[in-house]
Specification:
- Chain A: Pfam families: BPD_transp_1 (PF00528), OppC_N (PF12911).
- The complex is a heterotrimer.
- By secondary structure, chain A is mainly α.
- Chain A has a domain of 175 residues: MetI-like fold (Orthogonal Bundle), CATH 1.10.3720.10.
- Chain A has ten helices and no strands.
- The two termini of chain A are 23 Å apart.
- The relative contact order of chain A is 0.16.
- The two termini of chain B are 38 Å apart.
- Chain B is 34% helix and 24% strand.
- Chain B has twelve helices and twelve strands.
- By secondary structure, chain B is α/β, with parallel strands linked by helices.
- In chain B, a hairpin with a 2-residue loop joins strand 11 and strand 12.
- Chain B has a domain of 187 residues: P-loop containing nucleotide triphosphate hydrolases (Rossmann fold), CATH 3.40.50.300.
- The termini of chain C are close together.
- Chain C is flat and about 85 Å long.
- In chain C, 75% of the residues lie in helices and 0% in strands.
- The chains are: A mainly alpha, B alpha/beta, C mainly alpha.
- Chains in contact: A-C, B-C.
- At the B-C interface, helix 2 and helix 4 of B face helix 8, helix 9 and helix 13 of C.
């Protein structure tokens, strides 16, 4: 990966108002999740006197049905949602890159077998698997990360495989092969560096889908269990108070939307930036 | 005195690129009279196709016409509305393109594509347009036109598709037909058939033809007049006889030496022109052919004048400046010297 | 043509095999005694033993698999652990509600996505494109259950315009009533599909507009709108068939969240109830059923595509 590609990404980012907004949003949310304690409230401290207080000076996001500060819950919830998003992305990217590189580099029966496996996994509706696995396994944060990752590696594997197949035909790889370098050496030194752009783009989009999956799962009640909150489970409980306290539904949903939107926008900007011939304005 | 159909004055077209303005056409003036067949000859990048597109107002961003005036039947085409252009294109001025394989929409039947044009410009109903389309196909030499109209483009060979494109171009009896390298993408035998079709067209219809090509052989067979372009400028212009027997510009002479003569025998040596065309991002201020010209001298770095050698025979070259006799004598010397 | 269909059918066989193995394995791994899924309340203990023997549960796993496969092929997906009804029957009973909802949502999405995608592609990087592009970004990024809650709040709670729950008002049997109940869930699902379709159609429109035949249409005096809706649209619509095939899998699974929020009595909420009640035979039945829908949906789309695209017809 050379410097001009990064420069392209930078140009693309600043040429696009959405991109700057996405970076800002994600920075603020990440800082908010890391420094969640600065909200001054314990996210699980109940206050029977302050149930369903609308947003105001004391509680910026109001309080929920147990009188807990909603901003604090949203910040701590964001911690889990973002953590699940990043961690699942890393696991999924790891699996996807491994399988994609092996499949693309070695080809032959191994490639065939791996790709057929992938077809099967893809032909079972993924959200159903998600539900199934969350029934079999205990819904802890670690398990949820693994389950989501198991559903996301396929896309990474596909693009990585395709890219590996192009890179391995390049002159310098053929030369390395001819000069007797080992397969692992070639993959490490020549193939992987060339894969960085597709991996980054795939990873960015995967964070978006991981956060979305976690939210859906938690919304249905199969995600992270109470009293810990995630944005999805907050929406689940907000459903019951939609008439009295619509703000309970507004904030977590907006947070999910903005986060996922930002990652999707960034993913597209990275793709265009890495591939200048694809779209030039 | 024949009627002037099209006149182009000082046309300039450029394309914005990342590295600057690509000045594809840099001040081109010519005319086409009603019913005549004019060849526009040049290498790729000489500006001939861009000129044709400009006449049809088909230059799209990043390209734009930066200067010049185009008149059709005496009326200026510059500043026509898009709607007025639409009633002109395909109707009074039609165009045939280089690659028949990509010219037609692959998912629509030939008949649909032909009748669409006929109905748009001639206001015929569906049945009448279909009958007309069949008549046109027969006219361009396609057998069983009624069946063929119900087929898709991929069921036609390249030559057949080009016939369809010609039929489509002729469907509204245009006053001017611009053919942009219509035979380049075809096999040699098919090329000859399509050229015959153009010859036939020239004999039997009122349509004026502008035949754009890089192949002087094609010009010799079909055209009455020739315009030679190079580096976005017209180098020489004259009748076929002028150009083939009395070429004045060193570039035209070079082109003539580089084509095989019919019946020339195997002893003949083809002499390609050395060098490459000028970079139009930063075109030379003088003669664009200077770098490759065997006769280049000091003054060639200034833009040469256009010199008229005989009625309608002009060239743009410093060698031709001064008395026309000198130029003629020079040309004589060159040709007899071979 | 026939060759193509046969080849495509043969391609699905290994897929079917693997999917069935996956489902069977999951059933085997499920906690509890698998015999229970074939037990009805009025059975005696020796009946149960006979079933155990018939099912071959005393035999090795691969024989069990084939017996299970044979039962599946006969349409015996087992019985619910909760209400002891046959699984396939329950799925088929719920199918119309889900199919109706998904069908209308997909139809709505395609009807909106085609013009939006064409307009966005034709006006690339102008304001119309930017607006449509932003809407589709929101569409792929918005949690559908949140959109559903917002719509319920607005249309059902604030404006009292539309019902927010179920498919029918109790005691009312009219198509208009069902339609009224369907508007919100259908809009939510359609918005979800819309975004993906628009992005796809936009990029294929941009690709088509670069094709030479489009440039040539201008030279024959075509209007931009004529080119777009007569020439480019057909190209763009063809791949939509493939998209529809891929949506077949969502027919069941994608509806889970939306059906749950709106208490829509379809396969999605059946699956949700089954997951909550650990009703493995029903979960497995739905998984297998939707996998089959996805596999055959893709196959049908491929075959249909070859019928519609004139370029493939000749080769097949």
């Amino acid at each position: 990966m050379n410097r001009s590609k990064w420069k392209n990404v930078k140009d693309e980012l600043f040429a696009n108002g959405l991109g700057v907004a996405a970076v800002l949003i994600l920075t603020v949310f990440t800082l908010g999740a890391v420094f969640a304690f600065l909200s001054g409230y314990d996210p699980n401290a109940m206050d029977a006197m302050a149930r369903l207080t609308p947003p105001g000076a004391g509680h910026w996001f109001g309080t929920d049905d147990y009188g807990r500060d909603y901003l604090a819950r949203a910040l701590y919830g964001g911690r889990i949602s973002l953590l699940v998003g990043f961690a699942s992305m890393i696991v999924a990217t790891g699996i996807g890159v491994t399988i994609g590189v092996i499949s693309g580099y070695f080809g032959g029966w191994l490639d065939n077998l791996l790709m057929r496996m992938l077809d099967v996994v893809l032909s079972i509706p993924s959200f159903l698997i998600l539900l199934l696995l969350s029934v079999y396994l205990k819904p802890s944060v670690g398990n949820i990360i693994i389950i989501i990752a198991l559903l996301m590696w396929m896309n990474v594997a596909r693009v990585v495989r395709a890219e590996t197949m192009t890179i391995k035909e390049r002159e310098y790889v053929l030369y390395a092969k001819a000069s007797g370098q080992s397969a692992s050496g070639i993959i490490w030194r020549h193939i992987l560096p060339g894969l960085v752009p597709v991996i980054i783009v795939g990873a960015t989009n995967n964070i978006a889908s991981a956060i979305m999956m976690e939210s859906s799962l938690s919304f249905l009640g199969f995600g992270v269990q109470p009293p810990n909150a995630t944005w999805g489970s907050m929406l689940n409980s907000a459903q019951g108070y939609i008439a009295q306290a619509p703000y309970l539904a507004l904030f977590p949903g907006l947070l999910i939307l903005l986060t996922v939107l930002s990652f999707n926008v960034l993913g597209d900007i990275l793709r265009v930036g890495f591939e200048p011939k694809l779209t030039r304005r | 005195m024949t009627k002037r159909l099209l006149s182009v004055e000082n046309l300039q077209v450029s394309f914005a690129t990342r590295d600057g303005e690509n000045q594809a056409v840099r001040g081109v003036s010519f005319h086409i009279d009603a019913g005549e067949t004019v060849g526009i000859v040049g290498e790729s990048g000489s500006g001939k196709s861009v000129t044709a597109k400009a006449v049809m107002s088909l230059i799209t961003p990043p390209g734009r016409i930066t200067a010049g005036n185009i008149r059709f039947r005496g009326g200026s085409l510059t500043g026509l509305s898009e709607k007025e252009w639409r009633s002109l294109r395909g109707n009074r001025i039609a165009m045939v393109f280089q690659d028949p394989m990509t010219s037609l929409n692959p998912v629509k039947k030939i008949g649909q594509q032909l009748t669409e044009v006929i109905r748009r410009h001639r206001g015929l109903n569906k049945e009448a347009a279909f009958a007309e389309a069949a008549k046109l196909l027969r006219q361009v030499g396609i057998q069983q036109p009624e069946q063929r109209l119900k087929q898709y483009p991929h069921e036609f060979s390249g030559g057949m598709r080009q016939r369809v494109m010609i039929a489509m171009a002729l469907s509204c009896q245009p006053e001017l037909l611009i053919a942009d390298e219509p035979t380049t993408a075809l096999d040699a035998t098919i090329q000859a058939q399509i050229l015959d079709l153009f010859k036939e067209l020239k004999e039997n219809s009122e349509t004026a033809i502008a035949l754009i090509t890089h192949d002087l052989g094609v010009v010799a067979q079909v055209c009455t007049r020739v315009i030679v372009m190079y580096g976005g400028l017209i180098m020489e212009e004259g009748t076929v006889e002028d150009i083939f027997y009395r070429p004045q510009h060193p570039y035209t002479q070079g082109l003539l030496r580089s084509i095989p003569k019919r019946g020339g025998g195997s002893r003949e040596r083809l002499i390609p022109i050395e060098g490459t065309p000028p970079d139009l991002l930063d075109p030379p201020p003088g003669c664009p052919f200077m770098e490759r010209c065997p006769h280049a001298f000091g003054r060639c770095s200034e833009r040469p004048p256009v010199v008229e050698h005989a009625a309608g025979h002009r060239s743009m070259c410093w060698l031709a400046e001064g008395t026309q006799n000198q130029a003629a004598a020079y040309a004589e010397g060159r040709t007899s010297g071979e | 043509m026939r060759q193509l269909i046969v080849r495509r059918l043969l391609q699905t066989l290994p897929m079917l095999f693997f999917v069935s193995v996956v489902c069977f394995t999951m059933i085997k791994l499920a906690p509890g005694d698998p015999v229970l899924s074939f037990v009805t309340p009025n059975m005696h203990a020796d009946d149960i033993e006979r079933i155990r023997h018939n099912l071959g549960l005393d035999k090795p796993a691969y024989i069990q698999y084939f017996i299970w496969l044979k039962e599946m092929a006969k349409g015996n997906f087992g019985y619910s652990l909760v209400n002891h009804q046959p699984v396939l029957g329950q799925i088929l009973e719920r199918l119309p509600a889900t199919a109706g909802l998904m069908g209308s949502a997909i139809a709505l999405a395609v009807m909106l996505a085609v013009p939006l995608g064409l307009i966005a592609g034709a006006n690339r990087n102008r304001w119309a494109d930017k607006l449509i592009n932003f809407i589709s970004y929101v569409g792929i990024s918005i949690p559908l259950f949140w959109l559903a809650i917002l719509l319920i709040y607005l249309f059902a709670i604030k404006l009292h315009l539309l019902p927010s729950m179920g498919m029918r008002t109790i005691g009312v049997e009219s198509a208009a009533d069902v339609l009224k109940h369907g508007i919100l869930p259908c809009s939510v699902l359609a918005f979800g599909f819309l975004a993906g379709y628009v992005r796809y159609i936009r990029s294929s429109t941009i690709g088509q507009l670069k094709e030479e035949y489009v440039q040539i249409q201008y030279a024959f005096g075509s209007k931009k709108s004529t080119i777009l809706f007569r020439h480019v649209m057909k190209h763009v619509l063809l791949p939509v068939i493939t998209l529809l095939g891929m949506s077949m899998g969502d027919l069941v699974a994608g509806a889970i969240v939306t059906e749950t929020v709106f208490s829509w009595p379809g396969i999605g909420s059946l699956g949700m109830t089954a997951v909550k009640g650990m009703d493995y035979p029903v979960i497995m039945g739905i998984t297998l059923f939707s996998s089959l829908m996805l596999i055959f949906g893709n196959m049908a789309a491929d075959i249909l595509y070859s019928f519609v695209d004139p370029r493939i017809k000749l080769k097949g």
